[in-house]
Amino acid sequence: MLLTLLAFAQAAIADDVRIRVTDPQGRPLANAAVMLRWQNAPPPESDPPPAVMSQRDMAFVPHTLAIPVHTSVTFPNFDPTRHHVYSFSEAKTFDIKLYVGFPQRPERFDKAGVVAIGCNIHDDMRAFIVVSDAPRIAVTDKSGHALIKDVPAVPRKVEVWHEWLSHGENAAIRRLAADIHSMHVPIDIAPPPAPPPRDENSLQQRFDRIAQ
Questions:
Q1: Residue 40 contacts by C-beta under 8 Å, 6 or more apart in sequence?
Q2: For range 106-122, the mean pLDDT
Q3: Basic and acidic residues: which segments have biased composition (predicted)?
Q4: What is the pLDDT of residue 196?
Q5: Ramachandran region of residue 150, left (φ > 0), alpha (ψ -120 to 50) or beta?
Q6: Closest Cα to residue 32, out of 176, 171, 191, 183?
Q7: Predicted local distance difference test score (pLDDT) of residue 66
Q8: CA 119 to chain CA mean position, Å
Q9: Strands (E) located in the chain
Q10: Omega prior to 191 cis, within 30 of 0
Q11: Which parts of the chain fold into alpha helices (H)?
């Protein structure tokens, strides 16, 4: 009985957890999704707060968005040209045809998984939405750090996803003891080659002429 009470008391103590993600050489990795799991965690909310993935300066912002399952996401286009946002991913398939400003409705993500986002007009516009049923999720900043708040002091599993994960891994998995509040997670990556310079006579230029 005493051990059970001590376990409950320990679980009631919550603290922030800091995860640092790097490549094997110690260079920081931004845009890594970090998920924390533990036994007897509460189930995901049925209606979590909405999220936003914008289009600015011919790029998706943020590049990686981590959301709880059942989240609705809006894709506002703040560029002067129209975009065509889509995904063929198993976790979510959708198609928002050419538009500027705000689309007619948000997209709801009800299945856990990684959703690759693209623009059907601009091939170099790419982004990712990590939809998770983990009780805590965050994304690393430019320094490779993710701050995850209000985590109970129990044994936890750390899952790290990055678009450059090598060896076909879905996520790098580590164990985090109850009394540890920070961890360095180096992961093997396979960065893609640098994209070629944008062709001024590309599909966008032809589209602009047609749209006039």
A1: 11
A2: 97
A3: 197-212
A4: 65
A5: left
A6: 171
A7: 98
A8: 18
A9: 14-22, 33-37, 51-52, 54-56, 59-61, 64-68, 71-74, 83-89, 92-99, 107-109, 113-119, 126-132, 136-139, 145-152, 156-161, 172-176, 182-186
A10: no
A11: 2-12, 203-211
Q: State the chain's mean pLDDT as an integer.
A: 89
Domains 12-42+137-190 and 44-134 agree in fold: yes
**The CATH number of domain 12-42+137-190 is 2.60.40.1120:** yes
Instruction: Name the residue type at position 152.
Output: P
Please work out, in degrees rounded to the nearest 5, the angle formed at the alpha carbon of residue 194 by the alpha carbons of 87 and 166.
65
Domain boundaries in the chain?
Answer: 12-42+137-190, 44-134
Output the six-digit token pair for 203: 């599909």
167: confidence class by pLDDT, cuts 50, 70, 90: low
pLDDT at 163: 96
Q: Supply the pTM of this predicted model.
A: 0.86
From the list 130, 144, 146, 142, the residue with the least C-alpha distance to 181 is 146
CATH-assigned architecture of domain 44-134: Sandwich (2.60)
How many angstroms separate the CA atoms of 20 and 150, rounded?
17
Q: Helix or strand or coil: residue 153?
A: coil
